[in-house]
Amino acid sequence: MKKIIHLILISGLIISCNKNRNLELDSGIFRGVYYRLDNGKDTVYQGVANLAISEDNNTFTLVPDVSSSAPLNCYGRYFIKDVDSILFINDAYLNEFFYDDLLILDTIMKFSQIGEELTLEFTRDDTIFYEYVLVRR
Length: 137
Fold this sequence. Notes:
Layout: H1 2-19, E1 28-38, E2 43-54, E3 59-64, E4 74-82, E5 85-90, E6 108-114, E7 117-124, E8 128-136
Antiparallel strand pairs: 1-2, 1-8, 2-3, 3-4, 4-5, 5-6, 6-7, 7-8
């Protein structure tokens, strides 16, 4: 009987641990580097990015450093899709001439937040790699 109770308790712990995945992105202001690399080439775009995240209302604001041409200013909403992917929806008006859904945040990206570091990544057609490597300020 004790073995059955122990198995039930252990099973409950395992199930609760599997369901207790962090599907949040911590609020804060992050600063770091944005990269766009084409397969087999050097960096195409590189810039300093500032990203403000508000988990209270799931909003973001992305602002490049004044010396950077990429990424572009944008703001909008975000939704955590699963433990390693996030959907950004841009609400800012952008001239179509400048539109690239990854020069702004307007797509589903892989993300990880370990301590004070936030990384966002996306690969388009296995040829172009986008990455934000940011640290909480």
